[in-house]
């Protein structure tokens, strides 16, 4: 009986030693894995300035019969008329982030677009943010010109602002991207700027001696002003 108990006790000690050895090996493996720190490597990262900026006057018409003012266009605003200007844009970016455990590739993250931000500066005043267009979920491109039916490129769409003072207005936009584990910098792209000229009156540049001619905006070179003989002709 005693001999059997001694054998059983010895068997238990061997079992305990076996478990202890297995735990030690597991601990060594886990420690070795911890020593192999995860490293992140970015590639194909590019954050260019926005490719386009769009102007639309949704509740008025330009002198050329459209609702899309061109660069440096004269439009009515200021104290003579509170013109609503709609601003949109287009931008894209690229970038990937590879995660390695030692020399083994574990996973890859894609860098996504976050938002397109718009700013305005009236002549003689400080710049202020107009608003922003949020990108669709997990996308690398925004384009508000495609319209709502354009799907994910449209994002949250263009924004509206009011042209409430006369003078030269500067409109600015840039794109912002999310960071991956690679912590890419910069997150903001370069700027794209456009200019508009706001005045109280609504000039008609295509009226000459009672005849309408095809001049969409003020022409270059000499400008002739015709004054009617009587006020009733106005």
Overview of the molecule:
The chain has 1 helix and 14 strands. It is mostly beta strands. The strands form 4 sheets. A 5-stranded mixed sheet has the order 3-12-11-7-8, with no helix packed on it.
Q: How confident overall, as mean pLDDT?
A: 77
User: How is the main sheet built?
Assistant: 5 strands, mixed
Distance between the termini: 129 Å
Structural class computed from helices and strand pairing: mainly beta
Number of contiguous helices:
1
Spatial arrangement of strands, main beta sheet: 3-12-11-7-8
Looking at the structure, what is the overall shape?
elongated
Give me the secondary-structure topology.
Layout: H1 2-35, E1 38-46, E2 52-56, E3 74-76, E4 83-92, E5 94-101, E6 104-110, E7 113-121, E8 128-134, E9 141-143, E10 159-163, E11 167-177, E12 192-199, E13 207-208, E14 211-212
Parallel strand pairs: 3-12
Antiparallel strand pairs: 1-5, 2-4, 4-9, 4-10, 5-6, 7-8, 7-11, 11-12, 13-14
């Amino acid at each position: 009986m005693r001999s059997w108990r001694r054998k059983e006790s010895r068997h238990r000690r061997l079992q305990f030693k076996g478990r202890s050895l297995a735990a030690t090996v597991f601990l060594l493996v886990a420690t070795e894995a911890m020593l192999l720190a995860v490293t992140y490597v970015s590639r194909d990262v590019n954050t260019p300035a926005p490719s386009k900026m769009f102007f639309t006057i949704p509740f008025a018409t330009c002198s050329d019969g459209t609702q899309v003012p061109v660069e440096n266009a004269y439009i009515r605003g200021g104290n003579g008329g509170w013109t609503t200007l709609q601003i949109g844009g287009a931008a894209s970016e690229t970038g990937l982030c590879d995660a390695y455990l030692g020399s083994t590739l574990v996973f890859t993250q894609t860098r996504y677009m976050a938002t397109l931000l718009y700013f305005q500066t009236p002549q003689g005043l400080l710049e202020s943010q107009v608003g922003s267009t949020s990108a669709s979920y997990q996308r690398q491109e925004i384009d508000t010109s495609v319209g709502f039916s354009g799907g994910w490129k449209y994002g949250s769409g263009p924004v509206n602002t009011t042209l409430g003072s006369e003078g030269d207005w500067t409109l600015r936009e840039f794109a912002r991207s999310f960071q991956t584990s690679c912590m890419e910098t910069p997150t903001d792209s370069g700027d794209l700027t456009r200019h508009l000229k706001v005045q109280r009156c609504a000039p008609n540049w295509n009226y000459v001696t009672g005849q309408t001619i095809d001049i969409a905006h003020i022409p270059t070179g000499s400008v002739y002003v015709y004054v009617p003989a009587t006020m009733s002709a106005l």
